[in-house]
Amino acid sequence: MPSGVVNLAEKFAKVSEFWSPRVVAEMNDYQFKVAKFEGEFIWHDHQETDEVFLVISGSMGIEFREGTVRLSEGEMYVVPRGVEHKPFADSECHVLLIEPRGVVNTGDEGGDLEAENDVWV
Amino acid sequence: MPSGVVNLAEKFAKVSEFWSPRVVAEMNDYQFKVAKFEGEFIWHDHQETDEVFLVISGSMGIEFREGTVRLSEGEMYVVPRGVEHKPFADSECHVLLIEPRGVVNTGDEGGDLEAENDVWV
User: Fold this and answer.
1) Looking at domain A20-100, does it have CATH number 3.40.50.720?
2) Cβ atoms within 10 Å of B110's Cβ, excluding its own
3) Cβ <8 Å between B27 and A98
4) Please, what are the averages of pLDDT over each run of 10 residues along chain B (121 residues)?
5) What is the CATH number of domain B24-100?
């Protein structure tokens, strides 16, 4: 009997820390990660890959050097590889991230907000 | 100024046909497709890739040879490569599909429900 249904609300309920993506599913060599955002992240980029943000609940923004994008529930955005960006959320926002296995949340920037990678919830 | 916010509800509103995935975004060589399901699809598989179903509204099921999975809004499922499956929905269901560019909805089965591939909305 097949199993493996991923209920996103149940997954978000298990995440307490902001800015700490947790893997919920893999498709080929890509991962789906739930993340709670609140406050400001840091400027960073991912040289090797695009990165998708899909807002499941709440709203958030992404600062780019050229301007800011705002995303509400049911909206998604593809940040192209190599493009500097800084996510932020005025209040708690639940986001599904989709990107290849191995992507670190802070790119090469490191720092206090770097989350342990490849942690499942 | 960055643009490219994808509002899924707006995209679904532009799709009239059932079982005809329409591309809304690309991440590397992967595509995000909106699809409306109602009724029964056909048995098929994808030999080359996993395939993700994420239910945006409504509910649906996926029949496998070993049993049936049911998905509601906010739930996702990864169909592994090469596994025969038959999606169905008792009433209209809005689904986000994620899979590599080039995947045909019916696999190698063809038939009346084969949708033109790589069509954007």
Assistant:
1) no
2) 11
3) yes
4) 84 97 97 98 97 98 97 98 98 98 93 94 95
5) 2.60.120.10
